[in-house]
């Protein structure tokens, strides 16, 4: 059935509608009308227009689907022993990436495809309706290109992260040359973004700049892994190159915070990763207070954050990082959309991350009467139903 054949759907029984839209705000006793893949109407239930059919969600809270703007879903293998060692006191090192790269290269295309599909399904079942995902566990021209191709079959925003780690035995500058040359050409048809792990043990600021400028010249948008393991130049580089987002941001100077606040670069915090690496929590409160745009993402990956649960990330941001529930929900929806430059729609691609007329009909229904329950009942299975692109896919 085509989208327009589905007719309009009136969703009623919404105890609280969190639109994350400045004009609509939060509406008690609300209704939403979906037509095709877009929202046709949203407002108080008493004023709802008629539609072809109705669905009653039984007094539950509805919010936009999560926009998870930082994941690494294309991988095989397991790093539970490394995690256990970390919980026993070892520090996280970038070198663990090589363990996953070996397992990923050994997997055939069909297996990788099945693994990515299952992870996207799992994220959807937790309320995530938009995902970014990265390459970065291939680290050869062939394996980066197939990672990008497989990712593009499952998610809209694919990021080239050839500059994740210098493979063993290669000269760092030679590897950067490869990333900027034949590797970039091979992945470019499948990706929208480029990223670099600008950190000690991975890529220096100068190497990162070379990679990012080459990718920008090839037409890709920019993202940066920055200031995760210690203070450094990742944030400044991201702001200088007008990257859409700089992610991790655990170790920030006042200058970094000020630079982010005065820029269009989103500061993406990764609460599950911070817990799972026992890192100092990213200063999300300070960033918001300074006026920066903050996104919350899962960073789902086998090394530092093996979860796709945005419900968990939002609860952690509230309980541990000092955000209000409204701030955390906004960061995990509109914040993520801004980090992917998807907050403004076009004629053929509706905006995501908020619920208003003409935005994409991505709805997350909680098994609770208000969004506050996300942090009030941490760890509980609160996702009750999910619509993506106007289609009910969960429940
Ligand atoms: O975002 N920091 C770099 N990349 C991933 C971790 C990669 C790994 O250890 O496998 C991250 O945390």
UniProtKB/TrEMBL annotation:
Taxon lineage: Bacteria, Bacillati, Actinomycetota, Actinomycetes, Micrococcales
Where is it found, in Gene Ontology cellular component terms? cytoplasm
What's this protein's name? Imidazolonepropionase
The record describes the protein's role as: Catalyzes the hydrolytic cleavage of the carbon-nitrogen bond in imidazolone-5-propanoate to yield N-formimidoyl-L-glutamate. It is the third step in the universal histidine degradation pathway.
Which gene is transcribed and translated to give this protein?
Answer: hutI
- NCBIfam families per the UniProt record, alphabetical: hutI (TIGR01224)
Regions crossing the membrane: none
Q: Where does 4-imidazolone-5-propanoate bind?
A: 79, 137, 164, 228, 304
HAMAP family in the record, alphabetically?
A: HutI (MF_00372)
Mind listing the UniProt keywords for this protein, alphabetically? Cytoplasm, Histidine metabolism, Hydrolase, Iron, Metal-binding, Zinc
Q: Which GO terms describe its biological process?
A: L-histidine catabolic process to glutamate and formamide; L-histidine catabolic process to glutamate and formate
List residues binding Zn(2+): 70, 72, 225, 299
Which residues does the UniProt record annotate as the domain Amidohydrolase-related? Answer: 62-368
**Note accompanying the cofactor annotation:** Binds 1 zinc or iron ion per subunit.
> What are the names of the required cofactors?
Zn(2+); Fe(3+)
Which reaction(s) does the protein catalyse, per the Swiss-Prot or TrEMBL entry? 4-imidazolone-5-propanoate + H2O = N-formimidoyl-L-glutamate
What family does the entry list?
Belongs to the metallo-dependent hydrolases superfamily. HutI family.
Q: In which pathway does it act?
A: Amino-acid degradation; L-histidine degradation into L-glutamate; N-formimidoyl-L-glutamate from L-histidine: step 3/3
- Annotated source species: Tersicoccus phoenicis
């Amino acid at each position: 059935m085509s989208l327009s054949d589905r007719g309009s759907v009136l969703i009623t029984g919404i105890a609280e509608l969190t639109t994350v839209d400045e004009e609509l705000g939060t509406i008690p006793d609300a209704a939403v009308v979906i037509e095709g893949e877009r929202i046709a109407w949203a407002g108080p239930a008493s004023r709802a227009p008629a539609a072809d059919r109705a669905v009653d969600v039984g007094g539950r809270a509805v919010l936009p689907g999560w926009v998870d703007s930082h994941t690494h879903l294309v991988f095989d293998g397991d790093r539970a022993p490394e995690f256990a060692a970390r919980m026993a006191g070892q520090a996280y090192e970038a070198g663990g990436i090589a363990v996953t790269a070996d397992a990923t290269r050994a997997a055939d295309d069909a297996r990788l495809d099945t693994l990515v599909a299952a992870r996207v399904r799992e994220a959807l079942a937790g309320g995530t309706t938009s995902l970014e995902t990265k390459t970065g566990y291939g680290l050869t021209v062939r394996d980066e290109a197939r990672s990008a191709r497989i990712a593009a079959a499952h998610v809209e925003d694919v990021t080239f992260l050839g500059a994740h780690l210098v493979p063993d035995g290669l000269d760092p500058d030679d590897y950067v040359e490869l990333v900027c040359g034949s590797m970039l050409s091979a992945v470019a048809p499948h990706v929208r973004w480029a990223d670099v792990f600008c950190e000690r043990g991975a890529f220096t600021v100068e190497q990162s700049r070379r990679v990012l400028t080459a990718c920008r010249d090839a037409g890709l948008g920019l993202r940066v892994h920055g200031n995760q393991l210690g203070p450094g130049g990742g944030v400044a580089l991201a702001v200088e190159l007008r990257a859409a987002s700089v992610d991790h941001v655990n170790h920030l100077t006042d200058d970094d915070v000020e630079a982010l606040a005065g820029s269009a670069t989103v500061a993406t915090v990764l609460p599950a990763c911070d817990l799972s690496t026992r890192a100092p929590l990213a200063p999300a409160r300070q960033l918001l207070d300074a006026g920066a745009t903050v996104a919350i993402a899962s960073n789902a990956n086998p090394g530092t954050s093996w979860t796709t649960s945005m419900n968990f990330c939002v609860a952690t941001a509230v309980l541990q990082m000092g955000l209000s529930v409204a701030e955390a929900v906004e960061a995990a929806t509109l914040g993520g959309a801004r980090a992917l430059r998807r907050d403004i729609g076009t004629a053929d691609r509706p905006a995501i991350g908020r619920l208003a007329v003409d935005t994409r009909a991505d709805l997350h229904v909680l098994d609770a009467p208000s969004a506050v329950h996300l942090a009030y009942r941490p760890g509980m299975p609160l996702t009750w139903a999910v619509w993506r692109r106007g289609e009910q896919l969960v429940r």
